[in-house]
Amino acid sequence: NMVQVVIVLNKEECLDELIESFMASGISGGTILDSYGMARSLRNKDSNPLFAMFRDFIDANGNGSKIIFMIAEESQIRTISQIVNKVTGGLQNPNTGIMFCTPVLYIEGLHKNKEKED
What we know:
Blueprint: E1 2-9, H1 15-24, E2 31-35, H2 38-41, H3 49-54, E3 65-73, H4 77-88, E4 97-103
Antiparallel strand pairs: 1-3, 1-4, 2-3
Helix pairs in contact: 1-4
C-alpha cells in the first residue's frame, strides 16, 4: 500500500543530512517546499490590535520551515521515521517538526525506477 509522507521540518539545518540519509536507505523522490507557521504570519499585521497582542508569543527569530512530501510504500514508514528522528534529534523535542502519513487512494505519474522484468 502506498502512503503520502509529510514532514514539516522546523530544523532546516537538518535538511541536507535528512535527504542524504533517505537516499542512502534507498528512499528517494519527493518535493520540498518553503513554509512558515500561522503565528509567524501575524507578525506583519500591525493594523489590527488583536494581532499586535499575539506578537509577544511569536517566535522572534522568524525561522521558517521546510515541508517534505513523499509517496512511499507503507513498509517504509518505520525507516523514514527512524531517519527523521535520528537526524533531527527527535521529533518529540520542541521546535523540531512533525511527521504524518495518509493513505494514497489514487496516483498518476509516479514512475518507480524498476528494472524491466523479462
